[in-house]
Amino acid sequence: MPEQRPRVLSGVQPTGSLHLGNWLGAIRNWVDLQDSHDTFFCVVDLHAITVPHDPARLSEDTLSTAALYLACGIDPQRSTVFVQSQVSAHSELCWLLNCVTPLNWLERMIQFKEKAVKQGADVSAGLLDYPVLMAADILLYDADRVPVGEDQKQHLELARDIAQQRINARYAPKGPDGEPTAILKVPEPLILKEGARVMSLTDGRSKMSKSDPNEGSRIALLDPPELITKKIKRAKTDPEMGLEFGNPDRPEADNLLGLYALLAGRSREQAASECAAMGWGSFKPLLAEATVEALRPLQQRYAELRADRSGMETVLREGRDRADAVASRTLERVRSALGFLPATRDHGQQLLDL
Ligand code: TYM
């Protein structure tokens, strides 16, 4: 029998354009995992409406995000690529998990607090519930590992706590040996050190983010070369000479040197020694060139993929079917453990037959 590979699940929201943080912190790491893991990657469109959104753009942004996954090297022959809202088990498991998740676990989520401040009085219940939906995404696939950037660590801990303390500990039936059998697999975060926290170009102490109103703070994966060069030229610097890592008074130097290492394919040591005596005036064009060159193949591939709409739709349809088959089995397991009547047609038939 073929050995079962550990399972991976991750996702990105289709809000605005994906940026270097999404790529270096998450998607880039997904690519290598395809060789050793059973990989599921979804476009989390239900998460995208937890803040006000434009309905006219949602479906196009969803397709673009899926195309970017492929352009970054996700191979639909080896990975299941799908759209979250097309697998209804995500919403349904989210409801079941909502009913066992304490409100105060959600109220202490850092991202909720930060985003809620920005939304003011208009903050939705969905924004508070965001991490429970994320837990449902992960738990439905019995994921062993979840590759994400540093900012998602707290959400992953929440998913673990919900699975372990609120579902398995409370509802797991005892096995033949008298020990509880797990209903949900408890996932591990997979956060690679390098790229886990890409910072803003305009403030080295805050994260590069899609929601920053200043476009100059981030480099989108689809930014044309001139725009990339302009943004890097305007990026915040400091009065010191020479680039270095780890100086707490020089967060911009640390961030931009880290980006250079990742984008130019250098080790951190190589990048640090190459740029140790360089002034900002020489370093910035070097970083701009490395960024443009790193993104060029991705942008070319993206353009081809977007030109073939029906090809993308086929990938997502096949992905949905594969995802749905796994997710609906897990959902049924949870429903049954919580005491619901069976929902699937087969089970329904069995019920009628009783
Ligand atoms: P999103 O769309 O905000 O971010 C997608 C991924 O990009 C990473 N990321 C970063 N990494 C490094 N530096 C940055 N500046 C940076 N900004 C973003 C995020 O850590 C994330 O890995 N809640 C998730 C989406 C989600 C999800 C899931 C992820 C929904 N369900 C299930 C994994 C598993 C999020 O942050 O999306």
Task: Write up what this structure looks like.
The chain is mainly alpha-helical and 354 residues long. Helices cover 55% and strands 6% of the residues. It is built from 14 helices and five strands. A three-stranded parallel β-sheet has the order 1-2-3. Strands 4-5 form a two-stranded parallel sheet. Helix 3 packs across helix 12 and helix 4 runs parallel beside helix 13. It is globular and about 65 Å long. It binds tryptophanyl-5'AMP. Tryptophanyl-5'AMP (TYM) binds next to strand 1, helix 1 and helix 7.
Short structural description:
The chain is mostly helical and 354 residues long. The chain is built from 14 helices and five strands.
Task: Fill in the keyword field for this structure.
354 residues; binds tryptophanyl-5'AMP; three-stranded parallel sheet; mainly alpha; two-stranded parallel ribbon
Category from helices, strands and their pairing: mainly alpha
Radius of gyration: 22 Å
Biggest beta sheet summary: 3 strands, parallel
Total number of helices = 14
Task: Give the distinct bound molecules.
Answer: tryptophanyl-5'AMP
Q: Roughly how many Å apart are the termini?
A: 36 Å
Task: Point out poorly predicted stretches.
Answer: none
Arrangement of strands in the largest sheet: 1-2-3
Helix content: 40-55%
